[in-house]
Amino acid sequence: MHEMALAQGMLEIVEATARREGASRVTQVRLEIGTLSHVAADALRFCFDAVTRGSLAEGAELAIDDVPGEAWCMPCGGTVPLARLGDACPRCGSYQLAVTSGSEMRVKDIAIA
């Protein structure tokens, strides 16, 4: 389950930021997760709850913002929506696509006390 490794990495980022800011507690972590990233949000929530026990982020709310998939189509020369990796361009049917959005996962912000 790669969500456990992701949750642990996320906790490292959150705790380092909270300590740098002199916080005693993290109350919320907001993530952006691309629809093409293959991250299961429910599994990530479960893992986040597990790895944050005993940390500054214990009990923090995990808010997740979905980032839609987009790609640049070489033949069309424009940005198109992309529901899944490997799909064809919805405009021209080409598979010459470069993903421009939707494959990322990042900590957007944290709320501290």
Termini separation: 31 Å
The residue ranges in which pLDDT falls below 50 over 5 or more consecutive positions are none
Radius of gyration from the alpha-carbon trace, in angstroms: 17 Å
- H/E topology pattern: HEHEEEEE
What would the average pLDDT be, to the nearest integer?
96
How would you portray this structure in words?
With 113 residues, the protein is an alpha+beta fold. The chain has a single domain, classed as hypothetical protein PF0899 fold (2-Layer Sandwich). It is 27% helix and 33% strand. It has helices at 2-20, 41-51, and strands at 26-34, 61-67, 70-73, 78-81, 97-101, 105-112. The strands form two sheets. A three-stranded mixed β-sheet has the order 2-1-6, with helices on one face. A three-stranded antiparallel β-sheet has the order 4-3-5, with no helix packed on it.
